[in-house]
Amino acid sequence: MGKLTYNMRKYWPLYVMALPGTLYFILFKYIPLGGSVIAFQDYSVFKGINGSPWVGFKHFTSLFEYPDFYRVLRNTLVMGFLRVTFMFAVPLILALMINEIRHSLMKKGVQTALYIPHFLSWVIIAGIAFEMTSLSGLVNTVRGWFGLESMLYMQMESYFRPIFVLTGLWKDAGWGTIIYLAALSGINPQLYEAAVVDGASRLKQILYITFPMILPTAAILFLLDIGNFMELGFEQVYNLLTPMTYSVGDIFDTYVFRTGIQQAQYSFATAVGLFQAVVGMVLVIVFNKLSKKYSNGGLW
Amino acid sequence: MMAMSRGEKILQVIIVTTLCLLSIIAIIPVVSVLATSFSSRLPVDMNQVTLWPIGFTFDSWKYMIFRPDLWKSFGITLFTTIIGTILSLLITALMAYPLAKKEFMLGKFLIIAAVITLVLKPPLVPYFLTLREYGLYNNILVLIFPHVLTAFNLIIMRTFFKDFPQELEEAAKVEGCGYFRVFFQLVLPLSKPVLATLGLFYAVVIWNQFQHPVMFIQDPDLFPLQLKIRQFITSESVMPALMAEERPNYNEYTLRATAIIFAITPIIMVYPFIQKYFVKGAMLGAVKD
């Protein structure tokens, strides 16, 4: 302790500099995290954390008896699986294709067109999706050309998950290619020259040089992505969801928002959130370990 | 470059065609909404509008552009984005600098404490209750403060400072400069590229944010742009109350389309100038410490 006081006295400006950021982590991360104890209480806003009665695991047991919980868990797992699969495969394939374009202006154009949606908010992306599929929207106009009846896709259970995947790809698939393109540009050109001398066709070069060379990058990204399985993104799902599609689209994030914040079931929703946070944490740690083991890369 | 064989040419054509098609598909939704915003009410109602306006009119735009609530929301978003970005960069850089110094004893402890927040996130409800206790409910500061720092950006910045040439700093210290002067007059001015990149990331997060506003801002007078647009999309409130005899040349679809285009115009306009920083930033994220 004496050492620290000495260090603080000698290098006090460094401690002053770190203060605002440290305060941020305490105020906006650690204190709210500590507030999770209300999951073990019957919390009431008027009594506060100190005055509310402790109820042990009551909310957790009622959670597992609740049919809604399994619906939300299933939706989260299914949509997490869809997201991880598509957001892994599509950017990888896109990057391999973009890398093959020889014409640099065309390459730039394609990249710009595919990157831009990344900077639109989910409100806008969902808004465009609603406009496109409205009765007067482009999709129903095209259906009309073929003599088909108008359909409100956003209100239909069977289309919610495809729309979830498509909007996700539209926003982020292009953006996801950047990391791969960087890895691709780092491949030694002599490898290709040697392959050409040996008579390898372009397709063979992609299969036997390009693809193996970016596999490590892809593996790290894939594992880290699985680690974030539970992070489906409140903003995307909330903005796409309508009451008609709750049964297939309601995930932990939207469920906690509705029960906890809109309906003020504070302790119950905290229990749900804590369950989600702990499962999420275990996933991140496990898959980070795996990615370190297999490819020397990880978050830390 | 060697001459391409026939097979390679075919491959090239297939790839280029596919990518061009995908690019067009990525742009079509925006073009379609743009066309709707400049179209008349009837062609839109009769599903005649596809990718170009029919019955070209500025009526939707004239109506939306004169809505004071839309401009108010725009102003709130612009203000919080500017202030928030500056504050974020300052706080991030200030904390990252000592973390990059060996003589700072708490460095390791603070880095671990920061990384933990990436892994174990506070559940939504206690987060909400705590911030409400701070007085951030219905307060536009909630659009700024929760975003001023992320462990991720902190680590990127720290890595940058670690690679900063020590000789320069040592020389300044020999001249009698303290840490603060070295930081503000030497280190920060030479960190412009990384500041620009991180600043853009902070700015996009604050400009596009939806979760904090929807949780904390109930007062329509304080709605940032995204909440305003969301309100237009989900409710009929986008249409003005009309007298029975009025038949304006817009409807709720053209007005919503206009609101959407209004909200994305600033981003599309600045995008070409900052694309290189974004790409650089996306790559920075890949650099592990």
From TrEMBL, chain A:
One of its GO terms (cellular component) is plasma membrane. It holds the Pfam family BPD_transp_1. It comes from Salipaludibacillus neizhouensis. PANTHER family: POLYGALACTURONAN_RHAMNOGALACTURONAN TRANSPORT SYSTEM PERMEASE PROTEIN YTEP, PROTEIN LPLB. Gene3D superfamilies: MetI-like (1.10.3720.10). Its main location: membrane. The chain crosses the membrane at residues 12-31, 77-98, 119-139, 159-184, 205-224, 266-287. It comes from the Bacteria. Belongs to the binding-protein-dependent transport system permease family. The keyword Cell cycle does not apply. It is a multi-pass membrane protein. Keywords: Membrane, Transmembrane, Transmembrane helix, Transport. Coiled coil: none annotated. The keyword Transmembrane helix applies. InterPro entries: MetI-like, MetI-like_sf. One of its GO terms (biological process) is transmembrane transport. This is Protein lplB. Residues 73-287 form the ABC transmembrane type-1 domain. It is found in: Cell membrane; Membrane.
